[in-house]
């Protein structure tokens, strides 16, 4: 839930954990891969990504799947658009693509 995710983010800051890896699955569910998760949690944001994330349901369980939008070469970074909600406090984007929005939110 959002309340739990907010509490965890605050706790991670207090513990000195620099980044959190939270992924919204639906209105009520957020997956926290900060302390436990697979390597996909390290996929970076990009304003012109080569992949996209999609939530699918398999045997009544929601799963996050990363789909390629184009052929991806060996050693090419995998990226997707985090699609963070618009907020007053902006998070700078560092993707440096031609169409970079400048912020993640």
TrEMBL record:
An annotated GO cellular component: Set1C/COMPASS complex
Record-annotated SET domain positions: 1-83
GO-annotated biological processes: methylation
Compartments (UniProt record): Nucleus
Domain Post-SET stretches: 89-105
Any one Gene Ontology molecular-function term assigned to this protein's record: histone H3K4 methyltransferase activity
Primary location: nucleus
Keywords: Chromatin regulator, Methyltransferase, Nucleus, S-adenosyl-L-methionine, Transferase
InterPro entries xrefs: Post-SET_dom (IPR003616), Set1-like (IPR044570), SET_dom (IPR001214), SET_dom_sf (IPR046341)
Database matches in PANTHER family: HISTONE-LYSINE N-METHYLTRANSFERASE SETD1, HISTONE-LYSINE N-METHYLTRANSFERASE SETD1A
Name assigned to this protein: SET1A methyltransferase
Species of provenance: Rissa tridactyla (Black-legged kittiwake)
Gene: Setd1a_0
